[in-house]
Amino acid sequence: MSPFGLSEIRGALRGLQRSPLIALSAVACIALGLGSTAAISSAVDRALVQRLPFRAPEQIITVYRTTSHFDAGPFSPLNYLDLARLNTSVPQLAAIGFGTGLLALPNQSLQVDIERASGNLFPMLGVTALRGRLILPEDDGTDREPVAVLSAEFWQERFGGDPSIVGRTIRLDGVSHTVVGILPRRFGVPHGAQVARAQVWVPMLFSAEERTWRNNNFLLVMGRLRDGATPATAQAELARLFDGIVAEDPDLRGEGVRVLPLQTEGTRTVRAPLLLLFAAAAIVLLIAAVNVASLLLARGVQRGREIAIRTALGGTWVQVMRPAMMETAVLTAVGLGLGIVLAWVGVRSIGDMAAQRLPQLAGLAINIRIVFFAMGLALLVALLAGLAPAWRGAAADPLDALRGGRGGGTSGAHHRLLGTLVVVEVALSLVLLIGAGLVLRGFAGLLEQEPGFDPKRILTLQATVSPDRYPDGTAVRRYLEPALAAARQVPGVEEASAISLLPYDRWGWNFSIRYEGQPNDDPSRLPLVENRIVTPEFFRVTGQRLVEGRLLEPGDGERPDGPRVVVVNQTLARRDFPGASPVGRRYYLDDTSFAKIVGVVTDIRNAGPYEAPRAEVYHSFRQDGDGWWSFSLMIRTRDTAGAPIDPASLAGAVTVAVQSVDPEGAVTAVRPMAEVMSESLGRPRFYLALLGAFGAVALALAVAGIYGVLSYAVVQRTREFGIRTALGSTAGDILRLVTRQAVRLLAIGIVIGLVGSLAATRLLVSLLYGVSPLDVRAWLAATVTLALAGLLAALLPAWRATRADPVVALRAE
To answer: Using CA atoms, how far apart are residues 659 and 385, in angstroms rounded to an integer?
Structure first.
């Protein structure tokens, strides 16, 4: 850098030292604006811009099964195998199946998440191992020794990153598996709204029975296009092949195939919310730039005499502007540095919040592209915030400035420009506040949804045992029932039960129901029903009320050839039997066997707060628990003297009691039901936290802008206020005069903001969960909040105006 440049920088620093409040305020505004925008830009870059870490990801497709009920479903093993064998457009069609298992370690057993992967998955993705190798096609053979691959995170957490684990054996569900490799860090495979990610990956190894399944759908399917093929050509061929499969099996009528690019489909559910958050951050940045421009305009007036002298001495327009622009550059550079620090903190916070809620943001970090992006934004802010004040200062009348005048036309122009900037701030802030208010109303609506049971007295946990210890489906009688009995002996426990899928946490096991006497000519028109398996005590734990008939009983399933009985919820009864009783009706389990409805219970929101209760049937573990080795337990605590016992206080005792039944089993995920429900709201809470933070920052910046402009106006009009006081104006008159200016600016900004919000809030529909974008309470609350904050910001400058000394003002005149 040249000495001339250094001297200019030193001059800018000296000048800013004379106005420390303006300098600090400007740096804070720039840092907040740049930091928030850079942080959200990192999230957008990670989820929407960066290419997936696979070989030629643009050639990878996601394949869905469609029905009349949904368009993004999984496939059954036999349908997947037929499509993989017959098609030519996607020579590498791979599948993933999620499950859980029991991992036996030397001192304890753990329940682990397991992904079953077809042998061609990792070669198709082009992924290489961090250590060792990954699953290969030859590992799919039933004659091969079982192998396993560990995630890098699980390897570090449980094995301390020991490289010798590769080649050693682990015992998974009672079967020895050789660990052949470690996956890359943060590895996951996006598939629609979810990401396939697990602690342990094993080969698919379809059993002989699974290879016959056409209607048991659990496989996520994806593939790599052959050279020259497109998603459209793959869609056409796979749809034609699947139509042939459907023609041979009438039970599949109405089903089809849907093909989409993996790169874009994996981010579909987060694309709109993240772009909206980016827009909110950009608004904050724009408000910050406007605030800085206001501050620099005020600074320009303070240095008006200096500018006048430069102009009077023959300085060119550029020479006169350069000191002001240099001050802007210094402020922006310092703000940029602090902004990057804030962005780093913001990215850490966003990453922590999004860890389990938005898997698309896994590995979120500040990268060099974001740093350069922030530098570009800083340059833009410097131009937007610095040019206008510098130009206004250079255009000032030197004679008026040298006379020390404070009331000329230039001052009036400054007032109008500052007023315009405040109006812009108020309008933009109101748009953000209304958006945040609407999202808050939507989130509050989710919290207010009645779950159908009282979660405050329920403790949940996951109990898992090894299949080899309970052959022939005996885990229900030999483990589950004794474990529940042991839990009931814990002081403070009122009742204990189990369910196949924990409410608010795991759901989506459904089937198309066909009642006795109903024709099977069009399976696609059969209604969909959620399937749950429970112990008879489940309804006492949840407090679901019996509407008619009877509940499940311990005696159900005592005889192997006894009738299968189920209980249904009110939603199913109203939907499928309007005006009639479902009790006594039967539905098909297969072509020759039935289940009989014996009772109706009240609804609970098994699928969570986002939608109304679904139609459900409840089977008994005694009759339908064969093949289950992992159970979701729900424990209800007693109500002592009108105060329920905190479920968390019993977590240790219940864990010990359940573990005592089988010390080689695993008891995990011990947490109160209220915590489970809270975690189910993680995604809307994430969006609300960010949008609310942006709204709060925008409000603070707008208030600061109003305060700054009115303070500047009061200083400029000190002589006028003194004269008015000398001529008989009271303090109340002066107060009204100043606050009238604030009210005018607020009113204009609020009107413009309301008009802008009419268009902007319609983009928030996906985040509102049933709340109207025109919700009156949210709009009114945001408007009143901004108006009151603006008026409070105006009071201090107005009070200062009432303190103007007429003697001092007249002496200056």
So the answer is: 65
> CA 38 from chain center: how many Å?
18
Contacts of 800 (CB under 8 A, 6+ apart): 711, 714
- Condensed to tens digits (0 to 9), the pLDDT of residues 409-449 reads 445 666 677 788 888 889 999 999 999 999 989 888 888 88
Phi, psi (degrees; rounded to nearest 5) at 569? -95, 170
Q: How distant, in Å, are the alpha carbons of 64, 509, 521, 571 from that of 526?
A: 20, 16, 10, 16
| Alpha-carbon span 104 to 466, nearest angstrom | 9
Global pTM value: 0.81
pLDDT tens digit string along 211-236?
998 888 999 999 999 998 999 999 99
Spatial separation of the C-alpha atoms in residues 353 and 10, rounded to whole Å: 43
| pLDDT of 753 | 93
As given in the structure block, the two tokens for residue 587 are: 């539905």
3-state helix, strand, coil in the chain (%, to 5): 55, 15, 30
Cβ pair 552, 620 in contact under 8 A: yes
Q: Are strands 92-104 and 220-224 parallel, antiparallel or unpaired?
A: antiparallel
Beta strand ranges found along 504-621 (DSSP E)? 510-512, 528-534, 546-549, 564-569, 586-588, 594-601, 616-620
Dist. CA 586–CA 187, nearest whole Å: 46
Strand 60-66 relative to strand 256-261, pairing:
antiparallel
Residue-wise pLDDT tens digits, 501-515: 898 876 668 888 999
d(CA 530, CA 605): 11
What is the spatial distance between Cα 49 and Cα 43, in angstroms, rounded to a whole number?
Answer: 9
Question: Within 13 Å and on the Cβ side, how many CA atoms surround 338?
Answer: 16
Residue 205 pLDDT greater than 70, yes or no: yes
CA–CA separation, 416 vs 401, rounded Å?
A: 18
Lowest mean pLDDT among 357-366, 371-380, 550-559: 357-366
